[in-house]
Design brief:
By secondary structure, the chain is α/β, with parallel strands linked by helices. It folds into two domains: 3-217, HUPs (Rossmann fold, 3-Layer(aba) Sandwich), CATH 3.40.50; 252-335, Uridine Diphospho-n-acetylenolpyruvylglucosamine Reductase, domain 3 (2-Layer Sandwich). Helix content is 52%, strand content 14%.
Length: 339
Amino acid sequence: MSSGSVMSQGIDPALVGLIAVAVPTGPFAVAVSGGPDSATLAVHAAHYAQQAGVVMHLFHVHHGLQAAADEWLHRVHDLGHQLRVACHSLRVSVDTDSGLGTEAAARQARYDALHTLADKAGIETILLGHHRDDQAETVLLRLLRGAGPQGLAAMAAQIQRNGLTYIRPWLTVPRSHIADLAAQYARATGWVPVQDPTNTDDRYTRSALRTRLAPVLNERWPAWRETVLRHASQNADNQAVLDEVARNDWAGLEPDALNESFSLARWRQLSAPRQALVLRYWLASHGLPMPSQARLRELMKQLQTVHALGHDRDVCVRHAGSEIRCRKGRIALERLGKT
């Protein structure tokens, strides 16, 4: 089969259009696990790249967590060869003893690997294959974990991370449609996507939701995904307003040049909800995870009771490899081990 005929199989022009709108001019990459979602995105992205005359790469991260991981790597390289695009892969070691959990540790290792691959290939934009069902599952999981408005806004269509732009062009596309296109491509070309057994292993949180909870929701509330995504959109709007409030409040706290410290007295002039909001904003600006509600309450209690000039005792709350301290009326973030 010729390259042109291969490139026309299992293609939905509307999905190519979503990629065309989302991707900036210039070279880009698609992160491909080998599964039907990311592989179908790669096929459509290659179709777009050929039409637009831009360079495209495939990036694959070998986590080594599955017995079939070597086969998946070869399968992705085969897809790159079939689509006539460069394919780059990197093996990583996932720290399963990090305390993050296997899923979170693998995700962190994956982003680190993608950054390395992008740096070597000279790429600044990477497409991710998340779709509507992933989005709905993410919102529901975050709700069950007690996430606030920012978390319930779910995955953004575009994010900046470590100097790279990650784009999710198919967040409105249902999994079932992508699966149909993947099957069409497989029948026409002989290239079959891999199947990750963890997707149906309910020992993993997302898989448990997908295999045990989602079927019940589908039966009782067939439109639950649309409802959840509507709430996510509303939360995204609400979060945008809160971000604006937090930025304005932060500017009034007399921050230092590096945004590492601010005035305790100015912070105390805010209402309690805005005090909490600006603290979250401050920590997020340094790339730190959000503290638990209990940890945040403890921090606020210390800041509200310490002497106005911080002379009677030092505040010291540890969080994510950092310490939050109060000295001479200034609240400062100090990274542990920083000299």
